[in-house]
Design the sequence.
């Protein structure tokens, strides 16, 4: 593994300038891309479900819908229920949001365009991305609402069940790449994207990502017909919007990690000289589109079906596949 | 050594910037958003429109603790798996067989839990 340095270090002469540029870059990325994915969700769902509402605002194709939503959220009164634990209630959106910003630090957009190439990259991603659920738990507990509490516990149980398939699928990739660094993992796929030899693990990773994000068909924590809106029931205005932003941020992060692990990250398709960052963004948006597509396609699973699916289906499948990869890898070396 | 930990400075900076972003946004919302507390019943806990029954911090049956146990066991295994995954190739079949035995023992535990019926909704 040749140690690369980020292009951002080359530009900036001093350590502090480089730090400022990287921080601004990560924050800017987080403020733009998840919103674009949110916009994508409006439009894709509007088309798939023949909804006319999101097609009105602003005239052409309802381009101003997201702006209108933002203005609406800011204008809403910030209601904290009288029974709620005020401090925890207000901190929860930040705890849900910030981990996804931090994960973006290690996401490479090109061979030399990243904020940080950690030697424990994928481990760092798994560790930090798991913190977000504490925000949901805080929200559910602090709301002093039965439905919020149930939704938060469901979210936590779901994270517990699906963190394992997610981590095991990532471990399979690490076994082939021989490194934990995200740039190293992408570089190891120069010959063959890992989605080919590790296709079952790719499916496991995507399913587990959906469950981690509590996206349909795994959205029992916010099942509106059972528990109103789960942990977010009591939230209004900007705090609610921040939870939504965390969800879209999560989609971007997990699509990005899935691209890096299985789809060759910034590597172009053979014969197509597309610049790395464009390729990476294309893959992120393609996977995000799939995530949104599934929302329009599948009904919600039941809570116990969800748990069974993880423990009886995904965990044994990934364990078996990991061992298979291990033997194959040693046999070929 | 200091430069190794120094690289985590970016992580810290981004975390702080994220906290700053949230603080600025909430501060701005405080200035822009209307605030008329106490009008009507809006501070009452929301339970689909009817008056709340009992308090929110009520006892609920948590069926997840057994999953919690299983999770801890397998997550510890996953932590062993990562350092092993980076080096096993040079160690040959012995390393793979050892990991297979380790995973096998845990899989028997999962099988036991499954046959005991704890993975089924009570």
Sequence:
């Amino acid at each position: 593994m040749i140690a690369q340095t980020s292009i951002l270090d080359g530009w900036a002469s001093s350590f502090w300038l480089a730090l400022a540029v990287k921080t601004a870059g990560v924050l800017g990325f987080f403020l733009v891309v998840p919103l674009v994915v949110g916009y994508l969700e409006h439009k894709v769902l509007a088309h798939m479900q023949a909804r006319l509402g999101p097609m009105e605002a602003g005239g052409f194709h309802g381009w101003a819908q997201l702006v209108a939503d933002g203005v609406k959220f800011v204008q809403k009164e910030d209601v904290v229920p009288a029974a709620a634990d005020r401090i925890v209630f207000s901190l929860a959106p930040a705890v849900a949001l910030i981990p996804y910003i931090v994960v973006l630090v290690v996401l490479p957009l090109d061979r030399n365009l990243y904020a940080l190439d950690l030697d424990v990259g994928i481990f760092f991603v798994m560790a930090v991305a798991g913190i977000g659920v504490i925000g949901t738990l805080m929200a559910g507990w602090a709301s002093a609402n039965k439905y919020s509490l149930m939704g938060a516990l469901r979210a936590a149980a779901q994270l517990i069940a699906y963190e394992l398939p997610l981590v095991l699928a990532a471990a399979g990739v690490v076994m082939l790449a021989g490194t934990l660094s995200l740039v190293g993992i992408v570089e190891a796929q120069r010959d063959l994207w890992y989605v080919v030899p590790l296709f079952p693990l790719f499916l496991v990773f995507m399913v587990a990502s959906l469950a981690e994000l509590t996206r349909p068909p795994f959205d029992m924590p916010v099942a509106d017909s059972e528990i109103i809106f789960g942990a977010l029931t009591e939230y209004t205005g900007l705090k609610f919007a921040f939870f939504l932003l965390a969800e879209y941020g999560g989609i971007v992060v997990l699509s990005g990690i899935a691209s890096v692990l299985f789809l060759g990250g910034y590597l172009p398709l053979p014969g197509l000289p597309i610049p790395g960052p464009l390729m990476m963004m294309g893959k992120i948006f393609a996977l995000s589109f799939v995530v949104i597509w599934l929302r329009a396609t599948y009904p919600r699973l039941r809570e116990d079906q969800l748990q069974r699916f993880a423990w009886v289906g995904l965990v044994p499948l990934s364990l078996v596949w990991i061992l298979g990869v291990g033997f194959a890898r040693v046999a070929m070396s | 050594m200091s430069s190794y930990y120094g690289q985590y400075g970016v992580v810290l900076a981004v975390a702080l910037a994220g906290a700053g972003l949230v603080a600025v946004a909430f501060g701005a919302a405080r200035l822009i958003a209307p605030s008329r507390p106490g009008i009507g019943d809006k501070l009452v806990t929301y339970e689909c429109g009817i008056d709340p029954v009992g308090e929110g911090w009520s006892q609920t049956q948590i069926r997840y603790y057994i999953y919690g146990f299983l999770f801890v066991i397998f997550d510890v295994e996953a932590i062993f798996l990562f350092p092993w995954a980076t080096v096993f190739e040079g160690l040959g079949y012995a390393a793979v067989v050892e990991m297979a035995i380790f995973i096998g023992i845990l899989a028997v535990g999962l099988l036991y839990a499954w046959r005991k019926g704890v993975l089924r909704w009570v």
